[in-house]
Structure formats: C-alpha cells, structure tokens
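INPUT
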Amino acid sequence: MDIEKRKSLEAAGWKVGDASDFLGLTSAETELVELKTRLALFAKEQRKTNQLSQETLAHKIGSSQSRVAKIESGDPSVSLDLIVKALLSAGTTRQELAQAILDSV
Amino acid sequence: MDIEKRKSLEAAGWKVGDASDFLGLTSAETELVELKTRLALFAKEQRKTNQLSQETLAHKIGSSQSRVAKIESGDPSVSLDLIVKALLSAGTTRQELAQAILDSV
DNA sequence: CTTTAATATGTCATATTTGACATATTAAAA
DNA sequence: TTTTAATATGTCAAATATGACATATTAAAG
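OUTPUT
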C-alpha cells in the first residue's frame, strides 16, 4: 500500500483505525475496502453498459438516485450487500462478478 | 427455485417480500440470498481448513464467538461485508473467493 | 446562451446490523 | 459417567446503513 492510495482512501472518508491511524487496519480490512472500491467502479461500468440511468436502477433495487450515486462513488456508508444487489440488478452475472473480484483495483 | 429451497430459506428466517410473499423477491434479491448462503458455508469450511476456532476468528475480526456462529449458519442478520471479512481473515484468497462465487449453492 | 436530463453531495429519521452477554447444546476426552 | 472445549441460540443497546429529500453540479441538446 503506497502513500497515494492511503491518501485517496482517507480522502474518500474511509475510517482508518480509531481516528486516522491507517496502520490500525488489518490486512483483511484493507482487502475488503479495496474489494468494495473495485466493485463500486464495476457497478458504474455495468449500469452504463446496460444503458440504465441511476434513477432507473434505483427503482429496480428499491432505492433512490442519490444512493446509487453513493454506491458508484465508493461512499463508505454503502454496504457490500447493496453494491452487489446493484450489480445483479444491473444484469451482472456471477461469472462477471467473480472476474471483477480477481481484477486489481 | 423449487418449493424445498423456498421452505429452507423461509425456515432460516429470510425476509420474503413484505410479509411472507416469497414471490415478492426479485431475481437479484434471490441471487444475493443464495450467494450469501454459499459464502456462509464456505466461511465455515475455510475456518476449519485453517484450524481456527470460532473464538480465535472472532478476535481476528473484532467480534464474538456467537456472531461467528451466526455468520456460518447463514443467519439473515449477518451482512455480506461481515461474511467476506471473516473469509479474508481466515486466510481465504481473492482467487478462492471468486471461485466460491462461481460454485452453485 | 437556455433548457433539461443526469449525476453528485449533504442531511436526517428510520431500519438494520453489530458486538457482547447469558445460556443451551454438542463433542471430545479422561 | 464427568469434565471441558467448541459451537449454537436468543436478546438487546449501540453503531451503522438506509431511502428519501433538497439542492448543487455537470452534460447534452436545442
């Protein structure tokens, strides 16, 4: 993990240890954050590929446009459950999901 | 989705539509439930493979033995975030995670 | 430029998830 | 059996995620 990636995660609002101690994150926690970030980007790609507006996708998942925007921006208030629900609702297959997990951030 | 699978999901406490209308689940929601169920089973396998007790894994993820039991039993109160954190903390690689997603329930 | 559709950002009351705890059940020794 | 370690189940206050809303910003026409 280089300094630039650390800065970008902190800038995005990710909690880092108790206050701002980045070293407080276990490697599993860091991996999870990176995985969620990757899937957030992928969710945006997939929605566009399937020609859906954020508003349309929001209705499909029973949510709102603003929350879809938060999903795609990697907002730390968004759960992995919601990211995956958005992906599946946008037409992403399990195969594509699995491949996205293999891709690095 | 056959009747037996429906019954098993409902018996496990999964919310189904507004009250008990199973048909109220979208296919994306059903896929997500099945995915979480698969990963819950996989989490139990991985913990055992790596010779960890629930108590030990609980400490690694900053949680408790009882919640690890809930993760592994597919309890509906457990988030996908927590399931994946448990997997990664038990030593599961991204490759193994991706493969588990491809496996059917 | 102006209009209009799409996306982003901030806030908040409500809903869901959380770790912790007590306690029950099961499994493995001794 | 009895003891002891491991796992399961139920509950709850606190923490976190949620949809909804207002509004700002951006993009695409016209």
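end of record. The domain at 26-102 of chain B is CATH 1.10.260.40 (434 Repressor (Amino-terminal Domain)).
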